[in-house]
Design brief:
By secondary structure, this protein is α+β, with helices and mostly antiparallel strands. About 25% of the residues lie in helices and about 20% in strands. The strands form two sheets. Strands 2-1-3-4 form a four-stranded antiparallel β-sheet, covered by helices on one side. Strands 5-6 form a two-stranded parallel ribbon. The protein is globular. The structure holds adenosine-5'-triphosphate and magnesium ion.
């Protein structure tokens, strides 16, 4: 499902690499834990794998597609949970999910079901700006599942979650 070969990435023009020659492979059905210290390049790698940053050097294939040449269909098939909750704070939880669901060309999950699954059904109609950090993180996780993705990318998905709900 994922093939990364000799991947490098530098944010600047210098030779300081945020990602410095990594290779790995993830097969269908596998859960791959991508671990490393702060600043190791985990989020940068995820940004490249999801097409947010370009491939500068190396080869990256996700679902057998070269991520340098993705089509909208690529995004119909992946789910992404970001390191920092990037939600519409003035919209409610359900409005956020409904909005993001509308961006896909594939059948989407029922927002109420997803909110229920992450324990946010009772606050579905509350503005996300009034959610706690952990509640926002749970909503981002729910959003990553909205299009029934074949590949799910989760960047620190349990950050801010209390042990009883994570
Ligand atoms: N937008 C950016 N512009 C410039 N440099 C960046 C940017 N984002 C990250 N970096 C640098 O790239 C390197 C890797 O950062 P990255 O965020 O990928 O690490 P990480 O492994 O996800 O760390 P953490 O565990 O803290 O989330 C770091 O040296 C960081 O300073
Ligand atoms: Mg990170």
């Amino acid at each position: 499902m994922i093939q990364v070969c000799d991947l490098y990435y530098s944010y600047g023009k210098d030779e300081e690499f945020a990602v410095n020659g990594i290779s790995f492979e993830v097969k269908e059905g596998e859960i791959f834990g991508f671990l490393g210290p702060n600043g190791a390049g985990k989020s940068t790698t995820q940004r490249i794998l999801t097409g947010l940053l370009p491939v500068q050097k190396g080869k990256v294939r996700v679902m057998n597609v070269d991520v340098s040449a993705t089509t909208p269909d690529f995004y119909n098939n992946i789910g992404v949970s970001f390191e920092n909750p990037n939600l519409y704070l003035k919209l409610t939880g359900i409005e956020n999910l409904e909005y993001f669901a509308s961006l896909y060309d594939v059948p989407t999950e029922d927002p109420v079901h997803l909110l229920d699954m992450v324990g946010l059904k009772d606050v579905a109609k509350k503005r996300v700006g009034e959610y706690s950090k952990g509640m926002q993180q749970r909503l981002v996780f729910a959003r990553s599942l909205i299009n029934n993705p074949k590949v799910l990318f989760l960047d620190e998905p349990v950050s801010g979650l209390d042990p009883s709900t994570s």
